[in-house]
TrEMBL record:
Lineage, highest ranks first: Bacteria, Bacillati, Bacillota, Clostridia, Lachnospirales
Binding note for cofactor: Binds 1 zinc ion per subunit.
Keyword DNA-binding: no
Reaction(s) catalysed by this chain's protein: 7-aminomethyl-7-carbaguanine + guanosine(34) in tRNA = 7-aminomethyl-7-carbaguanosine(34) in tRNA + guanine
Assigned EC number: 2.4.2.29
Subunit structure as annotated in this protein's UniProt entry: Homodimer. Within each dimer, one monomer is responsible for RNA recognition and catalysis, while the other monomer binds to the replacement base PreQ1.
Active-site residues, Swiss-Prot/TrEMBL: 89 (proton acceptor), 271 (nucleophile)
Biochemical pathway: tRNA modification; tRNA-queuosine biosynthesis
UniProt-recorded name of the protein: Queuine tRNA-ribosyltransferase
Described purpose of this protein according to its UniProt entry: Catalyzes the base-exchange of a guanine (G) residue with the queuine precursor 7-aminomethyl-7-deazaguanine (PreQ1) at position 34 (anticodon wobble position) in tRNAs with GU(N) anticodons (tRNA-Asp, -Asn, -His and -Tyr). Catalysis occurs through a double-displacement mechanism. The nucleophile active site attacks the C1' of nucleotide 34 to detach the guanine base from the RNA, forming a covalent enzyme-RNA intermediate. The proton acceptor active site deprotonates the incoming PreQ1, allowing a nucleophilic attack on the C1' of the ribose to form the product.
Annotated family: Belongs to the queuine tRNA-ribosyltransferase family.
DNA-binding found in the keyword field: no
Length: 378
């Protein structure tokens, strides 16, 4: 159950009560695709870096290890030893990203596994069954994520099919949640708004899926090639047609600046691989913009990655030492960078929530964005 606590313009401050605890929003979900965050981050680390929600991938867990095995362990929470909320995405994005390995039909999608080439079929019912086996807190509806450069006719047909799939997802989840052997009978379902960069299709689809009275609503199919300006335009046009009293989730986005802009336009949930992926390559987020630890100017730098940061890396180690680890290809260097970046994101979300609580989000956003530009001016 979602409660809207406060609004500043369209920016929302809320909380979502789930069977695995309360999620304070706006929130960034830490991406652990195969039930672990890349970069040797342990579940025990997640508490220290202020993680509220962990996100895992339905398709990847289905093809490797398998959702039925994870069900035998009592679900994903027990398998990875995590007691807070988990969101699982439906596998729909792989319909987009594995375009060379799949065929889309009305019943669902036929894949060749990217691991061993074996044939896989996934439709709305299969996606819901896999996510039910994983027993995540929030399951995402199975959709197609069309390319941002697809023709309007294709996107219209795709969105209509996604709507038909959503009805099937809801029906199947209701069935699964009523079964005796279902681990999480309170699993929530979020629907996904699609429509490329066509605001008329987006708005119509938002109106249609709102009628289904789901637990939450995502905006999908952005950050797949369009400009940031186009993304912001679509959010401005679409989000007002999604229910304000339900959580909204912008899928796969983004940079710290993207998140601030998304919050301003009414988004509650975010996820992105940037903090972990960039961290593994020594690219670090700070309040003064990004820095690259491979840069030689940090070779003798005694300072932490960011002064005042309370992440495990900054509390103990210098830039010079972490740079040395990265150069020596020691896994600890990568791990410390990922921990810092995730802490930075989670801590920024906490700052955003505090700013909204105190009615000063607009001022916070302005100061934060100006801070990010500091390194660019040097």
């Amino acid at each position: 159950m979602y409660q809207l606590l406060k609004q500043e313009g369209r920016a929302k401050r809320g909380e979502l009560k789930t069977v695995h605890g309360v999620i304070q929003t706006p929130v960034f979900m830490n991406v652990g695709t195969v039930a672990a965050i890349k970069g040797a981050v342990a579940t025990t680390d997640l508490h220290e870096i202020k993680t509220q929600v962990q996100l895992s991938n339905t398709y990847h867990l289905h093809v490797r290890t398998g959702d039925k095995l994870i069900k035998e362990f009592g679900g994903l929470h027990k398998f990875m030893v995590w007691d807070k909320p988990i969101l699982t995405d439906s596998g729909g994005f792989q319909v987009f990203s594995l375009s060379g390995l799949r065929k889309i039909k009305e019943e669902g999608v036929y894949f060749n596994s990217h691991i061993d080439g074996r044939k896989i079929f996934m439709g709305p019912e299969e996606s819901m069954q896999i996510q039910s086996n994983l027993a995540s807190t929030i399951a995402m509806a199975f959709d197609e994520c069309p390319s941002s450069v697809a023709e309007k006719k294709y996107i219209m047909d795709s969105v209509e099919r996604t709507t038909r799939w959503l009805h099937r997802c809801k029906k199947e989840m209701n069935r699964l949640n009523s079964l005796d052997d279902t681990i999480n009978k309170n699993q929530m379902l979020f629907g996904i708004n699609q429509g490329g960069t066509f605001e008329d299709i987006r708005i119509e689809h938002a109106k249609t899926i709102t009628e289904l009275d789901l637990d939450g609503y995502a905006v999908g199919g952005l950050a797949v090639g369009e400009s940031h300006e186009e993304m912001y335009r679509i959010l401005e046009e679409t989000v007002p047609y999604l229910p304000v009293d339900k959580p909204t989730y912008l899928m796969g986005v983004g940079t710290p600046a993207n998140i601030l802009e998304g919050v301003e336009r009414g988004i509650d949930f975010f996820d992105c691989v940037y903090p972990s992926r960039n961290g593994r390559h020594g690219h670090l987020y700070t309040g003064k913009g990004k820095l690259n630890l491979f840069n030689s100017k940090y070779e003798l730098d005694h300072r932490p990655i960011e002064e005042g940061c309370q992440c495990p890396a900054c509390k103990t180690y210098s830039r010079a030492y972490i740079r040395h680890l990265l150069k020596a290809k020691e896994m600890l260097g990568m791990r410390l960078c990922v921990l810092h970046n995730l802490y930075f994101y989670n801590n920024m979300m906490e700052e955003i929530r505090n700013a909204l609580d105190e009615g000063r989000f607009a001022a916070y956003k302005k100061a934060k964005l100006e801070g990010f530009l500091e390194n660019d001016k040097k």
